[in-house]
Amino acid sequence: MHTPKHDWTTTPITADLLRGALDLEHTERGVLPHRLPAWARAQYADGQLAMAESQPSGVRLVFRTRATAVELDTRPTKRVYVGAPPRPDGVYDLLVDGRPTGRASVAGGNAQTIDMTTGTAELQPGPVGTLRFTDLPDDVKDVEIWLPHNETTELVALRTDAPVEPAPDHGRRVWLHHGSSISHGSDAASPTTTWPALAASLGGVELINLGLGGSALLDPFTARTLRDTPADLISVKIGINLVNSDLMRLRAFTPAVHGFLDTIREGHPTTPLLVVSPILCPIHEDTPGPSAPDLTSLSTGHLRFRAMGDPAERAAGKLTLGVIRDELTRIVAQRAAEDPHLHHLDGRELYGEADSAELPLPDQLHPDAATHRRIGERFAELAFAGNGAFTDHGV
Q: Which residue, among 249, 130, 230, has the nearest Cα to 174 in the 3D structure?
């Protein structure tokens, strides 16, 4: 399974070698990183949530070593959509002393076949594969292997040609972020180029990314997870999943936002807390959800989504992105009178009308790789610089 020419050292994969994961499940072969703790996962056995939280967006192996060669055995879970072309293999990014140094993928693994017409999924077990990075500098260095943001990844074995130890704490602030599939990484090119990973790099902070595709739904267990996770900076991006799932109406939304923020504040009473409203999404600006895939486009490899609601339903309290932005602005202004560390950011400052004209959302919901870069750079400018919420001025 691995090349024989190196004198390999095998190191157990333990929590002190991982960053960005909140739980480590021990499996028959190795360990599976999770981004929600086991008690939270037990509170709602939803297939979409289970898939999203087990996809290790922002999770990375971090260690110090003199090794010039690194091998990592993993068993990924690939998603296969019935009627659609195959998805590309997930990407692993290698950083050495913070600098991008390599990129690779692991073929094979489990296959989860998803039928979007019936909402069913079937898992076919598959083999372990090996990731290999060689010709690394022959000196002591910090090595980071960022796991695929969109591919559940069971970690089986870590081998190096020199011993490893946990990397030291460099004293960077920890930024805890929660959001939807856009924060999760959607169609970013790699795990270090999702918009939160880019923003964290530009802001010089350690990222814990609780962007959960399809599952930013104001769930109380997510709020309690945010409450209980140590962090120096917190942001929550609220909106698109509530519309495209048609989960609740305005009567439920406002108290749910207050409750979500109340819970976070129980554990982080004075931590800078930034509430981010949705980026521009033309199909749902004034039209409620749910959104549904246009299945006629699947076979061409160009999945697109449609808004299925009626704008007239806003009068009955149905949510649109415009309604949510207005209400979040009002809620944060009301609470900030008593909470000076609470801040608001209109998501259209990250991606608005001019951006949509230049870089339209390819499937009507999710940004592409270039747009992730733009959103990450904008967030860094607006939150980590000037008078942003995550600067000394904002604090």
A: 230
Residue 258, SS3 per DSSP: helix
332-343 pLDDT, tens digit each:
999 999 999 999
DSSP 65-84: E--S-EEEEEEEEEEEETTS
How far apart are the C-alpha atoms of 194 and 55, rounded to whole Å? Answer: 13
- Measured distance CA(92)–CA(53) in Å, rounded: 18
pLDDT band at 376 (very low <50, low <70, confident <90, very high): very high
**β-strand partners of 275:** 236, 344
Concatenated DSSP letters of 40-57:
HHTT---HHHHHHHHS-T
Q: Supply 262's token pair.
A: 């109340």
Looking at the DSSP assignment, which residues form a beta bridge with residue 104? 92
- Cα angle, residue 317 at apex, residues 287 and 248 outer, rounded to 5°: 85
Give the residue from 230, 214, 224, 197 showing the smallest Cα distance to 36. Answer: 224
| Structure-token pair, residue 133 | 């990075």
DSSP 374: H
Q: What residues pair up with 165 in beta bridges, in sequence order?
A: 64
Q: Is pLDDT above 70 for 363?
A: yes
Alpha-carbon distance of 346 to 366, in angstroms, equals: 18
Q: pLDDT tens digit string along 210-230? A: 999 999 999 999 999 999 999
